[in-house]
Amino acid sequence: CVLDPSPAYTDDKITATATGLDDPDGDSLTVIYEWRVNGVTQSSITGATLNKSKTEKGDLVEIDCAVTDGSVTSNTISDSLTINNSPPGAAALSLSPSNPQTNQRLDAIIDTPADDADTDTLTYEYEFTVNGVTSQGPSSKEFIGKNIVQRGELWEVTVYANDGTDSGPSSTASVTIENAPATLTDCDISPSNPGTLDQLTA
Prior knowledge:
Blueprint: E1 2-4, E2 8-9, E3 14-17, E4 30-37, E5 40-41, E6 49-50, E7 60-68, E8 77-84, E9 92-96, E10 106-112, E11 123-130, E12 133-139, E13 143-144, E14 154-162, E15 171-176
Parallel strand pairs: 2-8
Antiparallel strand pairs: 1-3, 3-6, 4-5, 4-7, 7-8, 9-10, 10-13, 11-12, 11-14, 14-15
């Protein structure tokens, strides 16, 4: 009597498969299943399948299998497994602004959070590269500060979610830094109190 799948996760339906059934008299045989989760007998479940709604991460699942020909019941064969942690999925990611210019701040935005079958609390790790070379991370810092990015650079961020036990698959987003327009902060006219014949200078 073997439990499947192994390893098993929160979203898995557990199935017990009994093999090697034989009766010298040729009688029809019926398999008897007894399920336990964390030592508690699941009396309402008499078939070969344990629904995923009955288990969660860390649970110990046990099965006892026996066969009967209607008159005599065989010895019991057992198997067990523990429900493993389910790693989180991938998050949907973008960089803001989407058309950044020289010296602007870059922020990694989680557009769609990663899912987690175990409903664990997730944290995110970010790694920023510029032209393929690591600039920052991996760390929980999700932005590149002002006055760092320069025109023509290719910036990419990679993020993955962690549930405290495992990390999920990574997601990436990238942008190319655009030219920043020139700016003028002041413009004065001289002299400030011109006469009729004065030449004005800006």
